[in-house]
Amino acid sequence: MVSGDTEAGARAAPVVMLEGASKSFGALKAMDHVDLHVSPGESLGLVGHNGAGKSTLVNLITGLFAPSAGRVSYPGASDHRMAGIRAISQEGTLCPNLTVLENLQVVQRDLNGWGWRRVAARRIRTALDAVFPGHRIRPDMLVADMSLAESQMVEIAIGFAEGPIPARLVVLDEPTSSLDAQVSAQLLAHIRRFCAAGGAAIFISHMLGEVFAVADRIVVMRDGRIIADRPTSGFSRQGLVDAMGHVADDRNQPGPTAQARNLGDTVLRTPEGIEARRGEIVGLAGLAGHGQAEALARFYLSQGSDWRSTARPSAVFVAGDRRRDGVMPVWSIRRNLTLAALETLTRHGLIDRAAETAIGTDWQKRIGIRTPDMGNPILSLSGGNQQKVLFARALATSAPVVVMDDPMRGVDIGTKTEVYDMIRHEAAQGRTFLWYSTEMDEILNCDRVFVFRDGAISAELEGPRITEENILAASFEFGDAA
Amino acid sequence: MRLINPRLALPILSLAILIVAVFWLQPRAMSYVGINLLFNLAVPIALATVAQMIIIMVNDIDLSMGAFVSLVACITAAILPGNPALGVLMLLGCVLAYAALGALIEARQLPAIVVTLGMSFVWGGAAVLILPSPGGTSPVWLTAIMKAKPPLVPMAIIASLLIAGVAHLLIMRSAFGVRLRALGGNARAVSRAGRSTVRLRAMAYAVAGCFAVLAGMALVGLTTSGDANIALRYTLLSIAGVILGGGEFTGGRVSPIGAVIGALTLTLAGSFLSFLRLSPDWQIGAQGAILILVLAARLLVRQAEKRT
Predict the structure, then answer these.
(1) Is residue A82 part of a domain?
(2) pLDDT tens column, A429-480
(3) CB < 8 Å to A159, chain B
(4) How many CB atoms within 10 Å of residue A274?
(5) Which of A90, A382, B184, B299 is the most exposed place for a label (fewest CB within 10 A)?
(6) Chain A closest CA to B85's CA: distance in Å?
(7) Rounded to an integer, what distance in angstroms lies between the CA atom of residue A429 and that of residue A403?
(8) pTM of the predicted model, to two decimals?
(9) What residue in B sits closest to A80 (Cα-Cα)?
(10) Same domain for A385 and A409?
């Protein structure tokens, strides 16, 4: 349906063209005069800091927003749907109460009439087999019964699945955030195959290694503008980080292991064998879904009572799955922040508003929450800033132990660096951190690491023994045909 | 494919236990006539429960179910026998009104609990206007259907199976039903896929309205007269039936077969208490106790499931 042919030299008509496209939300200019063409066969890496305008760009391309100025057009097609543009978003757009194949039906309109289940099952099975060979997902499985990684795999497969309008441009926003390394590699390989066959992809990830592995062109955004748009070969890792405007690269952070600290007595011990001393940052490593989150939840729930709350809790929890365990979506930023410390703010059963405001302002400054007004709803913040609020919520209490369930999922490097500093500072003051993380650089920052495999601790590493090789060796079971 | 949904195990078990208990207390109930008597009042309740289930499935709740079924009963008893054309038109209007409510709730993002609570007074008022005092008659054909005596299996059982089967096909198996359940599961995903949530919610309410109209008609077919207060307790019975049948209040997780089983269980619980010769003063409380018992059992089963 597109006139352009793909002969060498002759450039095929782009799938999507943005010409001077802008988008503002009230006074906030989220995107400012962006020109961008994506052609068939292209694999585009999109990088940028939180709030750089990546999501806005994606939403314009996928037709969720209309531009406030300028033009978004799909040569040869009337709208984004006819153009074969598919979006795999970060937030999860599956219906948990439906099965895998029923979820495909929600997006594909031709699945109607007799026998649609058979067609849907075939399409989704083919897509899953193509993208994730060796997956164990059945089309009749209920999404609610699946793990986070599995539902993300389903979402990706739906994006690539055969349908009434073939996929020509697939937009993947942080698609690997809850996939482990092996499955991520399968996905990257599939994106390359898809583009080699004439499809186009836009790939957004904070893992620069993945962007370099998959993209043949990288677009860098900052402050709602495209500030660099070159073939991947024109970037170096350092150059890319510099272009995003970050001062810190994840490679040159000083490990806290280097800075010798005086650790106190052992303050906690769990049935699984996790131990931590006062002021220690303890990491829980291993492949995602091997029992780390469960161990944390069991420990945290054993610390409190279901019946009464106390002004001096012995542990606080920082959620990784913000939507499920973290934010109160209709509350203001300030209320979300002070939630855990509420008992200390209560006087005669009422909340001391002045003290609440003071805590809010204090933490806004200390952790750098980017908002003009702490009374704004929490959902007005970007993901990284929401996560900062959840950190502040935990740190605003007097709890000696902070439990963190992979809280940095999908957070940009700038926010991470700020939070790492905050954690080190708090640890130096004598707080103990229990930190489950799926990211190696975070684990390498810990004083002691417990590696999980199949629900049990497979290694305990300390000091100089905390290395990537040791952790990987303990995470994988050798001689096992996975 | 699993043959039986594990969520249905508990509703089926509770119904079976109650049936055994009733037969043990009153062996004479174990007959064609006995079974029909035990279950025939369950038919309208089952229809109302399925209607309520469809509303709960799209994350709403309908507090006007009882008043609406009563209004339908009044129309059926007062107008349908004398003026079939007008009667059918009015019943059709009722369904359309339900669809309009659904569209309004979605378009203006109103809480359904408030809208339906308000509408319950409208339905109640309309019912009194149509039939100021209890009376009217049932259309002959309707009574003939409801009181039919098919060989071997009593009408009440056939009707229950039919309701469960039709609702299951429509809600659980058809593409249309999947779209409605998707609305309850993740409305944002539905609108992102380019479908109109207003249209879908209106459809859900229209389908619920159809089942509720059938409930009112079935009730008149059995009682052969109407009354503006005839079905007021259906509101709470239908909600209880949905939950008893394994449905959840939010997230679009419901089961039509479970809902019908839930309605049968609730009806049977009433008979069981009568057979126990419990004073009517205590019956409502005892019915509540049975409800709490089943729900507690369900909670325990879920927790056990989670632990494994």
Answers:
(1) yes
(2) 889 999 998 777 788 888 999 988 777 888 899 888 888 778 877 776 543 3
(3) none
(4) 20
(5) B299
(6) 33
(7) 16
(8) 0.76
(9) B194
(10) no
